[in-house]
Each structure stands twice: as C-alpha cells, then as structure tokens.
Amino acid sequence: MSLSLSPSPARLFSLLCACTVSQIEHCIDSKMAKTRLAWLLTLLSTQCYLSVLAVVLKTNNASPWTNEFDKVELSCVIESISTINPRIEWKKITSGGPSYVYFDKKIYGDLENRAVIREPATLLITNATRSDTAKYRCEVTAAEDQKAFDEILIDLVVRVKPVVPKCSVPKSVPLGKSAELSCVEEEGFPKSRYQWFKNMEEIPDDPKTSVKFFNSSYTLSTETGTLKFISVRKEDAGEYYCRAKNDAGHTQCGPQKMEVYDIDIVGIILGVLVVVVVLLCITVGICCAYKQGYFSSQQQTGNNYKVPAKGDGVDYVRTEDEGDFRHKSSFVI
Fold first, then answer.
1. How far apart are CA 196 and CA 205, in angstroms?
2. Nearest of 80, 49, 76, 71 to residue 60 by alpha carbon
3. Can you tell me which residues the record assigns to a coiled coil (predicted)?
4. Beta bridge partners of residue 227, listed in sequence order
5. What is the third-level CATH fold of 166-261?
6. Burial of 137 (0-12, 13-18, 19+ CB in 10 A)
7. What is the pTM of this model?
8. Is 171 helix (H, G, I), strand (E, B) or coil?
9. Burial of 241 (0-12, 13-18, 19+ CB in 10 A)
10. Is the peptide bond before 7 cis (omega within 30 degrees of 0)?
C-alpha cells in the first residue's frame, strides 16, 4: 500500500489502529517531508492512546418500539474500553425518578423474570408490557480507563392494541333533527384514532369528498370518535359501527341500526284538536249535571224526615211497621 500527500489526517488516522509505527512509515510516500511525517505520527499516536484509555458507548437504536407481549432489545455497545471487568448498570427513568433494572450482574424490579443481559451490556426484554414504556439509561464505569465513565439513553415505547370500543348509536331519529354517535376506547397506546362505517363502507372525514355522502351534513372527529349529524336525512338511515386503531392494531364494535322517521304534523294537530273537543264536552256535561241537581248533597229520606210541630190536643206516634208517624187522637176534658 502507498499513500500520497493528498489523504487527510482523518484518513491516515484510520490506518493507525491497524498498523504499527514502522508500517505507517513504510506506507507513507517517500516524498513526504520528515517534519510532516513526525507531526502526523505524534498526532495519530496521541489520538490512538486516548481512544484506548476511554470507555465509549453507542447504541444501534435509541428509540426502539415493540408490541405488548413481544420481545425488544435495548442496545448498549461498548466501542472501546481497557478495563477487563467494567461495572455495567441499567436504570429505568420515570417521573418518580431512576430505579435499578440491572445492577451487580442481577435483574431487578418488575423485569426480574422478563429480561436478560446479552454480553457485554445489551438488555433484552423477553415479554414487554405497557408499563415498560419509559426511558432507560445504560451506564458503564471502567476504573482502569482515563475516561472512566460513559452512558447512553434509550427511549422505549411498548405499543398496546386497542380493546373493543364502546359505541352509542340512536335507534331512531326524527327527519331533519340532529343526532350524535359516539365511540370510546381508552386502553390502546398510543392513543386510538377512530373510523366510522355505514353499511360496511367507511364514512369520510369530509362528506364533500364522497359522492355517496356529498349531501350529508355531519362532522366527524377521528380523535374523539364522535359523528354528529346536523340535520338527519332519510338516506342517513342504516347500520353503523366504529373502529378504533393505532400502530399496534385495530378493533371495532358490532353494527347498530339507526332509523329515520317522518314527523306527521297534520296528525299531531288533529290529535290535539280531538283531545281539546273531548275535554270541552266533558266540562259542559259536568256543568249541566250540577244545574240539574244531580250532584245535590241533600236528599229527603225516611231517616232525615223532620217531625212537624205538635198542635194542641194532637199526639204523634211512630210505629215500627209503618216507618212513619200516625195521628193519635186525644180528648182533653
């Protein structure tokens, strides 16, 4: 191999880790000035020395993700180190502060039976759950290195598939009135977005973008899952269902039928008139009955008969058989 004066110092530095000083001297073109050669060898030797005495970490993926119950690898690669037995630690960073995941060659916390260390420092979670979503920090301490400590931060996301959403569809709506359909799902992560379907066909966010829904007047929110009809038409009747989806998958509720019916204004008016006429007839009848005395509270009977005042020489005796009074004569001498 031979090198001209054109290669940069960065290019020449890459040769040093694979060659000795004598090999580099042999590789460099004889036309290079001795001062240039001496300067370059001093620079490269210093850089190589420092790299050997410094612990350096890197990761293959700083933002890994996985679906719930799947496995995921948190990569922590040691690029350079001189210490034979460095101290390796993993910590989980949450709002409550850091907590140990791996320390003194043991797995701790809720990952105790669900994670292993792949040599030298990579953490493998074999059965991820939604609670594993957090930031993780890999720390390596090398006592024998000049730069004795390094760390990297990894942001893990565990995606959770939505559960069956709760859907609410009105069974019947008057023609021309408003109606609201709702769809809610709170288990999925990331947060679910929603789609509505009518008779197995997806309802577009904007009705003006579809020929079938062009004349419909509704608003659809994919974030809250609400479908609001401003003025229901006959064509809006049908079977509706909602789908909740995120990056982990999707689920949907069963179809529910919504009917649209006409409001019979004439029939309602006639019904009200009939009720009014019936009430008037009843009122007039009651008044007439009062005038005729049908509701009089006092009627003469044998039990409330008033005994007339006694005249001189006349005595009245009531008999049990007759139930009335009879005249009894008496003579006064």
1. 9
2. 76
3. none
4. 181, 220
5. Immunoglobulin-like (2.60.40)
6. middle
7. 0.61
8. coil
9. buried
10. no
